[in-house]
Design brief:
6-stranded parallel sheet; 10 helices; 10% strand
């Protein structure tokens, strides 16, 4: 049974949904933000890099992209370039990979400290879509921590298909804003991209959905801004996924 979205063009029905995780299903974007702040506050201070790291940097350079790419993009915004290094670099090594690995440690620490509860409106939408006949759903997230977060949030049994950072690395898929991870998820579900809805809160994720030719790119404004999401390619923008549950 197709999913009819009131805000979408009249008569459109969609046959699958591809959800980002952080900021769409769970408030783990806040965990990522806290972890990145720990890493970049320390690094900027110790290397006299200005201006100071801010939440605006998170949304502009880091949100939704693979971890190492986020490090490189953020440093480039300050005119700083360091060796890429290797994924085996010890956390804190003065390389892109070393900083990225330090961020992953910080993320795990913050997640353990605070836990994670999924957005109530997102759970309501998952319940609603779960009542449709033969309506597959997938999670598409750049994070390698995706399975841990899904389990912690009690959502692991909702998704048989997950395309995450480990999947991308294993299959050589470029991360968002390239559309490849979303396209891979649609292929796994057996649904053409034109029949899928992409649900994203990040500018890079919205851009990926737009680039992939998906039927609808639905932006969730958790801080990136409605105008910015629309410019990036969102067809519809909501504040919370509860707005998509038919009453």
């Amino acid at each position: 049974m197709p999913w009819h979205i009131p805000q979408a063009p009249a008569g459109e029905g969609f046959k699958a949904a591809l959800f980002d995780l952080d900021g769409v299903l769970t408030p783990t974007a806040e965990v990522h933000m806290a972890a990145w702040k720990r890493i970049f506050d320390d690094y900027f201070s110790s290397h006299s890099i200005t201006p100071a790291y801010s939440d605006a940097d998170y949304f502009a350079h880091v949100d939704g992209v693979p971890r190492y790419d986020g490090v490189a993009r953020l440093l480039k915004s300050r005119g700083v370039e360091i060796p890429w290094g290797d994924p085996t670099d010890a956390p804190g090594t003065d390389t892109v990979c070393g900083l990225g690995n330090a961020k992953n440690e910080a993320y795990t620490a913050v997640l353990k400290e605070n836990g994670v509860t999924p957005y109530e409106g997102s759970v309501a939408l998952l319940d609603h879509l779960g009542e449709l006949d033969d309506f597959p759903m997938a999670v598409v997230c750049s994070s390698r921590n995706t399975p841990v977060v899904l389990e912690a949030a009690g959502l692991a049994d909702r998704f048989a298909t997950v395309v995450d950072g480990d999947t991308a690395a294993a299959e050589g898929l470029p991360g968002k804003p390239a559309p490849d991870t979303f396209l891979a998820a649609a292929k796994r579900l057996g649904v053409p991209a034109a029949d899928c809805v992409v649900l994203e809160d990040s500018l890079s994720g919205v851009a990926a959905g737009h680039a992939g030719g998906f039927g609808l790119v639905l932006g969730v404004d958790r801080g990136a801004g409605m105008d910015a999401l629309e410019i990036a390619g969102a067809n519809v923008v909501v504040k919370d996924l509860s707005e998509l549950v038919e009453l």
